[in-house]
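Sequence design from tokenized structure. All designs in this work follow the same two-part layout: the structure record, then the generated sequence. An example of the structure record is given first.
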């Protein structure tokens, strides 16, 4: 086989592998466009105390101290979250405290899935490292990637008064991820979504209390 033909085949194989990895990781060719469109209509929440109520099932985003879990559940006394506006952005962070008085933030979890690069799969609780005093001890873990603790409140175009809560993590290069009213091991499910995704389980009322 001529050398140039071998080189051409090699290049094609490399390109195919790269494209497969990109697809597996959820990288989107419209990621930048989607991210800009989402950020443009994101509502800047005022700092304060809020509850997050699902548009379906009469459930709230709740903080379960045992295990440090954020999950949707029915409650007569819904969890109140302290929302802080992230400096110079429209993003917010959501803070709560467990029974031991440790501050936790709603955070984006990354999973390696089947080993093809990984993707964001859940909203979980993690020690707050944004919009707060940085912990002196991170428990041996690397400092968190800041956008993992930031969220966009995006008004739904169809259901007035409801929002998609979209992770700021990889907003401009991957398919956006919304908090959905579904449990997942360790937290609440993050589901692929876009501005026009019509799915009520992705919608939340964000009420200042």
């Amino acid at each position: 086989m001529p050398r140039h033909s071998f080189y051409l085949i090699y290049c094609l194989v490399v390109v195919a592998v790269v494209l497969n990895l990109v697809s597996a990781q959820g990288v989107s060719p419209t990621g930048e466009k989607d991210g800009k469109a989402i950020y443009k209509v994101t509502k800047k929440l005022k700092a304060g105390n809020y509850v997050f109520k699902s548009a379906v099932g009469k459930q709230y985003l709740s903080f379960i101290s045992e295990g440090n879990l954020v999950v949707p559940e029915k409650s007569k006394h819904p969890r109140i979250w302290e929302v802080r506006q992230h400096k110079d952005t429209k993003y917010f962070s959501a803070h709560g405290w467990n029974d031991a008085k440790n501050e936790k933030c709603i955070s984006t979890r990354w999973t390696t899935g089947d080993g093809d690069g990984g993707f964001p799969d859940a909203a979980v609780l993690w020690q707050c490292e944004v919009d707060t005093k940085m912990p002196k001890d991170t428990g041996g873990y690397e400092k968190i990637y800041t956008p993992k603790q930031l969220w966009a409140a995006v008004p739904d175009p169809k259901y007035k008064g409801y929002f998609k809560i979209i992770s700021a993590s990889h907003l401009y290069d991957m398919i956006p991820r919304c908090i959905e009213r579904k449990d997942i091991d360790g937290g609440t499910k993050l589901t692929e979504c876009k501005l026009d995704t019509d799915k009520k389980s992705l919608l939340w009322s964000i009420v200042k209390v």
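The longest strand covers residues 103-111. We note this feature because it recurs in several other targets discussed in the main text.
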